[in-house]
Model the fold of this input.
Amino acid sequence: MARARRKGRPIHGWLVLDKPAGMTSTEMVGRVRRLTQALKVGHGGTLDPLATGVLPIALGEATKTVAYVMAGRKRYRFTARWGEARTTDDAEGEVIGTSAERPTAAAIEAALAGFVGAIEQVPPQFAAVKVEGERAYDLARRGEAVVLAARTVEVDRFALLEQPDDDHAVFEVVCGRGTYVRALIRDLGARLGCLGHVAALRRLQVGPFLIESALSPGALEQLLADDALPQALLPVASALGELPALALTEPQAHRLRAGQTIRVAPGLVVGAVHEDATIRAMAAGQMVALARLQGGELSPLRVFNL
Done:
């Protein structure tokens, strides 16, 4: 019996949404799927329900580039609340510890140096990390003990922006994949001896996608009502801006789409090229394939049907 074809519209590209507080990333994906009727939808990096800001949504063939977006740098602006440790390390959790100590700006600045670079971090208990096949937050919600191992994460910048009052401090962080802002504040509060959790968090950037170009869910609905979705839809290749690129001839594009290897002159590739590099293979401004360059031969890794 022939397999039934999946229902949906063949929409390909990226949408950059400004996720409101109170919604999960999965709920946002479901909302976009219902609104656009797209055949395939995914997201480029989870945001907690409490958080707002940049949530890149991949449609159609763009879902093949999600890993590159998730590997990109993230930028956050957030408010720490001193004096309380919470189960979730943010304002949604139950208070599990209090302190009357409050840090000075000088103490905070001095401590921040220890949280920049490659650091060891234990994820929050309420995290999406899997433990023996289950999400840590599911185990924690059932009241089960969750033991998570420390892992190395990269923090490029951790800056104190302001202190509105003794109980709060506003920070900005630029970090790599897998870094939990909640854990940064949990550990910073512990080091300062005052305890702390994240009271509010806004993501300003994910890889190439910026808050300045992000749409609210309401703005997306209006675009769809006006039949103007293409105005907001970014090309599939938007996620791959830092990869070297090669403009293909049509015969070369045909061969790569068929899974065949082609010979190329490395000097024709635009961008930093090294042995075993991943290349954006393009034709007429459209993605043809992600391909590996080895010894002057380009072999397709992922082919795009655009």
In short: Helices lie at 25-36, 66-70, 105-112, 136-141, 181-192, 217-225, 250-257. The longest strand covers residues 151-165. The domain at 13-72+208-237 is CATH 3.30.2350.10 (Pseudouridine synthase).
